[in-house]
Design goal:
The protein is of the alpha+beta class. It has 4 helices and 14 strands. The strands form 4 sheets. A 5-stranded antiparallel β-sheet has the order 9-4-3-13-14. The protein has a 5-stranded antiparallel β-sheet with strand order 10-7-6-11-12, with no helix packed on it. A two-stranded antiparallel sheet has the order 1-2. The chain starts with a strand and ends with a helix.
Length: about 280
């Protein structure tokens, strides 16, 4: 059986099916090419963001850290909960290898001698596994308050020698200010590995400080360990703190990229369906 087509000639069913398959292949090829072009544009945009927004040290922003980082800081407990007892600091190892942090120190002073403020030292044999977290609470069992705030979470260390939680060696007083402070991580040779500051910034000052957050919130590093040495860009206000767990937000630039990409993909998909 033949059918009359637009130019007035007759075409058989076989020719019609062939033409239809040819058009479908063409549309599919065009869709694949559009998809690949979109991916290239996304990759280029990500690279452009990194190159066009250097931090104070001239480094590209949004580079995943290659070292242990201060990942989340909880410094302002809700009303009715004690401070500094409920304060905690979480470390994260973003690397593919375990990291031995024996003798490493946490301090709220740029000089970790414990004479001006406080310093906590990790005992020998302390290791953070690859892609793993380590949680230090000031006093994990004080009146059951940490457990009340974060049920089911067992800290790795605290500074209360009278409970069953492994102890940090404590020197001076590491109390995090509610309006601003600075937190430093040093290795066993007292070389600074990472630092963050917030609010008024403590000893570091307020420039590039992470925001001061409400009581019960934490300051969390954008996942996965994005590190620009600029806390205002690296940390966000986390209303639901996540001790010993992955932080919930990725960098804002990625969200701005993904939204138009998904929109483009949706348009291409609809167009293909119509064709």
């Amino acid at each position: 059986m033949k059918k009359l087509v637009a130019d007035g000639s007759f075409v058989g069913e076989r020719e019609i099916r062939y033409a239809r398959r040819k058009k479908e292949k063409k549309n599919k090829r065009a869709w694949v090419i559009s998809f690949l072009i979109t991916l290239v544009l996304v990759a280029s945009l990500i690279l452009a963001i990194g190159k066009s927004n250097p931090n104070a040290n001239g480094q590209s922003v949004r580079a995943a850290a290659t070292h242990v980082v201060i990942n989340e800081v909880y410094y302002d407990a809700p009303s009715g909960y004690a401070e500094p007892q409920c304060e905690w600091i979480e470390l994260y190892n973003p690397t593919a290898s375990d990291v031995d942090i024996s003798g490493w120190m946490l301090s709220d002073d740029p000089v970790p001698n414990g004479q001006n403020e406080g310093v906590w030292t990790f005992p020998q044999g302390t290791t953070i596994p690859a892609k793993g977290y380590l949680l230090v609470v000031n006093d994990a069992t004080y009146n059951g308050q940490f457990n009340s705030l974060f049920p089911g979470i067992t800290p790795d260390f605290d500074t209360n020698s009278s409970n069953s939680i492994p102890d940090m060696t404590k020197k001076g007083s590491l109390n995090l200010g509610n309006s601003g402070d600075d937190v430093h991580l040093f290795d066993s040779s007292q070389t600074e590995v990472d630092a963050m500051w917030y609010g008024s910034g403590g000893d570091t000052g307020s420039q590039n400080a992470a925001p001061d957050v409400a009581a019960g919130h934490s300051l969390a590093r954008y996942y996965d360990a994005e590190d620009t040495d600029n806390p205002s860009a690296d940390f966000y206000d986390e209303s639901s703190p996540t001790p010993r767990a992955q932080n919930s937000q990725t960098i804002p630039e990625m969200n701005l990229i993904l939204i138009p990409v998904l929109a483009v993909m949706a348009v291409l998909f609809v167009k293909r369906r119509r064709d």
